[in-house]
From TrEMBL:
One Pfam family here: Glyco_transf_20
UniProt GO molecular function: alpha,alpha-trehalose-phosphate synthase (UDP-forming) activity
The family this protein is said to belong to: Belongs to the glycosyltransferase 20 family.
Transmembrane segments: 167-191
Name of the molecule in the record: Alpha,alpha-trehalose-phosphate synthase (UDP-forming)
Tagged with keyword Transmembrane: yes
PANTHER family: BCDNA.GH08860, TREHALOSE-6-PHOSPHATE SYNTHASE
Keyword Cell membrane: no
EC number: 2.4.1.15
UniProt cross-references to InterPro entries, sorted A to Z: Glyco_trans_20
Keyword list, A-Z: Glycosyltransferase, Membrane, Transferase, Transmembrane, Transmembrane helix
Gene3D superfamilies in the cross-refs: Glycogen Phosphorylase B (3.40.50.2000)
CDD domains: GT20_TPS
Species, as recorded: Anaeromyxobacter dehalogenans (strain ATCC BAA-258 / DSM 21875 / 2CP-1)
Length: 757
């Protein structure tokens, strides 16, 4: 009904406007006709009596003139007639001739209207009606004799106009009614058709979820259906798990055993989860600042297996065996860390060069120009090959489950596929995927896409990035896209493209180990020298230009400018782990951040008070969690971010249900964490208002928001993220095994039975 009203109301308004326009037009035209008609009638009436009139006038026979005028004015619409001499003096008139229209007035008007002695006419009000005045000139051989003035009653014109308007209104009302009925009927019928079609397709989808041939359907239903399919398959997998509720390490292990029985799990990620360093002669283990590691480590702890990574720590070689392996976590080993050694030149080209000066800025809309060098790409290709060798060395059988992580390894999936054709390769891209136009900047775009399409499943955080990837394939590769199944078939092998929003472990081990919130607050306040009634905001990041750290500090400055009540009271602590420091853009960022912090501190600092505390060093998770728990707010201001796990960690840290998350709209996390205060980090007015609102937020509202956020993150935790990928991979593997057992070729839908994966 609402939809019908939405169409009908504007339609009626439109018809009303047309009716009004038409009535104005009709009125205008009718008036012109009446005017012409009346003037013609006057001329005709005078011309019949012209000879007699002219003679009588020439002779000055007033009585005869009056009599002839009486003849001329016999028409019922004529109110009166008068004969006037050339100077505008009355010669004679009929008895009812209206007084206001004396000869002088008519002559003045006629002279103004025409240079030559021709008939002229005009309209004028007369009492409650209007009259039409016509002056018809008279002349004989001797010269001009004056003119005859005729006054026509025009009240009938108004009556006609009224009637015409009424008629038009009725006509348009009938048209509007007919249009409304037609629209309603059309909407009804097409709605019925649509819902019948939708029901048919949904039924078919429900009865054959998974890889069977999808029912044929209209194009416009396809996006809706792929969502329904995803939901159905998710529900089905929850059901087949035999349990609903929270995902946990145990449930993940269970899902792996159930869906991928006997499989070994090999993870490939450039960044290692434990970095061995030697400081002051003492061997130490560092946990790197990396969202990828934060998310993945608990998963691998749960599944066991092998994590292959670049051995980047100065003391890494000291602790491995002769195969470059070490069991981790160091205090309670659960899986194997296999280190790959890279030369300085390889690291330069592959990691700093192509990965972080090329792909990283290419994929993030953060206004840093990507740099592409042929040498870097060659090093990238070689490094990917080196990791492919390591995968083959670590694999105990022909069909391992390989989890390839992030933009450092775009070429790796195809390299593995070529050497282990039966492997199940799940690739996850932890950063955004750009739109296809932007992706076109990369000179090796097609090779990158082909490399990634060696995967069985390719995951992104959000659907928008899946769509961007599909568009890129569409634009730069000769491959078959199945938008309904969200897959790409290249060389007979299918890759599913899916959104799997990443998360953190729950309960988060660092939160579980941290002291209670009041103790953390006490300790952090003491470290920062803050008064007990001070207000504290925190930012926790790698020092990276995608994180919007400059914009964040500027928002703090704007807050202090606009809201003086926070001056001297609000401190913002930015924990910034130095990152990729050999790259000039990162060095520049470091300088800029320092400069902004210095300026704001100079402007608003007083005595011991510094509004911004910049802590530029690596902080281990216990310190980070202490700051999360001590803070009144946490501001995540990324300019563009695949997900951003700092936001989720802050939520996990706040078991006291206090503190406010201020979150950039340009993070994947903002799509999930709607109870945060969402801001555009470029808009300093909005951001500073959100900071002020966070600082003034009543405890009850903080609790309500934080409780909702915690419920979400606990449910959509990282075990679920990994579990869903593994279940999908298990289903694919089962399908391939079934199709592999069938001896007659059965590929009813091209690509459906796909190659091995
Ligand atoms: C991002 C990337 C990760 C990377 C992390 C830290 O989160 O997606 O792959 O590990 O940044 O960067 P780094 O260069 O120190 O590994």
């Amino acid at each position: 009904m609402r939809a019908v009203l939405k169409v009908l109301v504007p339609l009626m308004l439109l018809l009303g406007a047309i009716a009004w326009g038409a009535s104005v037009l009709v009125e205008h035209t009718a008036r012109r006709w009446f005017d012409r008609d009346t003037r013609m009638r006057a001329e005709l009436a005078v011309s019949g009596a012209r000879d007699g009139l002219e003679r009588a006038l020439r002779k000055g026979e007033r009585a005869r003139v009056r009599r002839i005028l009486g003849e001329v004015a016999r028409d019922e619409r004529v109110l009166g007639a008068a004969a006037c001499d050339p100077e505008g003096a009355l010669v004679a008139s009929t008895s009812e001739y209206p007084e206001p229209f004396d000869c002088g007035r008519i002559r003045a008007h006629a002279a103004a209207g025409a240079a030559a002695p021709v008939t002229s006419a005009f309209e004028a009000p007369y009492g409650e009606t209007r009259v039409h005045l016509t002056a018809v000139p008279l002349a004989d051989e001797e010269g001009p004799l004056g003119f005859v003035a005729l006054v026509h009653d025009m009240s009938w014109v108004a009556t006609r106009e009224e009637q015409t308007r009424g008629f038009l209104a009725v006509a348009f009302a009938i048209v509007a009614l007919a249009a409304a009925v037609a629209t309603t009927l059309a909407a009804r019928f097409s709605w019925r058709g649509w819902s019948a079609e939708l029901q048919r397709v949904l039924r078919a989808t429900w009865l054959m979820p998974g890889p069977s041939a999808p029912p044929r359907t209209r194009r416009e239903f396809q996006p809706l259906l792929s969502d329904v399919r995803a939901l159905v398959s998710e529900l089905a997998s929850e059901q087949s798990e035999g349990r609903a509720g929270l995902w946990s390490p145990a449930r993940l292990r269970d899902a792996l055993a159930r869906h991928l029985p006997g499989s070994e799990v090999i993870v490939v990620a450039n960044r290692e989860p434990y970095i061995h360093e030697r400081r002051d002669g003492v061997l130490r283990v560092q946990h790197p600042a990396s969202g990828l590691v934060t998310a993945l480590e608990p998963v691998v702890q749960a599944t066991g297996g092998t994590w292959i990574a670049h051995g980047s720590g100065a003391a890494d070689r000291e602790v491995v065996d002769r195969h470059a392996r070490v069991r981790v976590p160091p205090d309670d080993p659960a899986y194997t860390l296999r280190r790959v050694w890279l030369t300085a030149a390889e690291e330069e080209g592959y990691y700093y060069g192509f990965s972080n000066e090329g792909l990283w800025p290419l994929c993030h809309v953060a206004h840093t120009r990507p740099t592409f060098r042929g040498g870097d790409f060659a090093a990238y290709r070689d490094a990917n090959r080196k990791f492919a060798d390591a995968v083959c060395e670590e694999a105990n059988g022909p069909d391992p489950v390989v989890l390839v992580q992030d933009y450092h390894f775009a070429l790796l999936p195809r390299m593995i596929r070529e050497r282990l054709p039966r492997a199940t390769i799940i690739t996850f891209w932890h950063i955004p995927w750009p739109n296809s136009e932007r992706f076109g900047i990369c000179p090796w775009g097609p090779e990158i896409l082909e490399g990634m399409l060696g995967s069985s499943i390719l995951g992104f955080h959000v659907q928008a990035h899946c769509n961007n990837f599909l568009d890129s394939v569409d634009r730069y590769l000769e491959a078959r896209l199945d938008r309904e199944r969200q897959s790409v078939v290249l060389g007979g092998q299918e890759t599913l493209i899916r959104a799997y929003p990443i998360s953190i472990d729950w309960p988060t081990r660092w939160a579980a180990d941290a002291p209670a919130a009041p103790l953390c607050r006490e300790r952090v306040f003491a470290d920062l020298g803050l008064a007990p009634d001070a207000l504290l905001g925190v930012g926790i990041d790698r020092l990276d230009y995608t994180k919007g750290i400059e914009e964040r500090l500027l928002a703090v400055e704007r807050l202090l400018e606009r809201f003086p009540q926070f001056r001297g009271r609000f401190t913002f602590a930015q924990l910034a782990a130095p990152s990729r420091t050999r790259i000039p853009r990162y060095q520049e960022l470091n300088r800029n951040v320092e400069e902004v912090a210095r300026r704001v501190n100079e402007r608003f600092g007083e005595g011991d008070y510094r509004p911004i505390v910049l802590l530029r060093e690596h902080h281990e998770p216990p310190t980070v969690f202490r700051y999360y728990r001590a803070a009144d707010l946490c501001y995540v201001s990324s300019l563009h971010d695949g997900m951003n796990l700092v936001a989720k960690e802050f939520v996990a840290a706040r078991d006291d249900e206090a503190g406010v998350l201020v979150l950039s709209r340009f993070t994947g996390a903002s799509r999930e964490l709607g109870e945060a205060l969402l801001v555009n980090p470029y808009d300093l007015e909005e951001a500073s208002s959100a900071l002020a609102a966070a600082l003034a937020m009543p405890r009850e509202e903080q609790r309500e928001r934080m409780r909702a956020l915690r419920t979400f993150v606990s449910e959509f935790n990282v075990y679920r993220w990994a579990g869903r990928m593994l279940v999908d991979a298990g289903r694919l593997r089962k399908r391939d095994r079934v199709s592999g057992r069938i001896t007659v070729p059965f590929r009813t839908v091209p690509g459906e039975a796909g190659g091995r994966r």
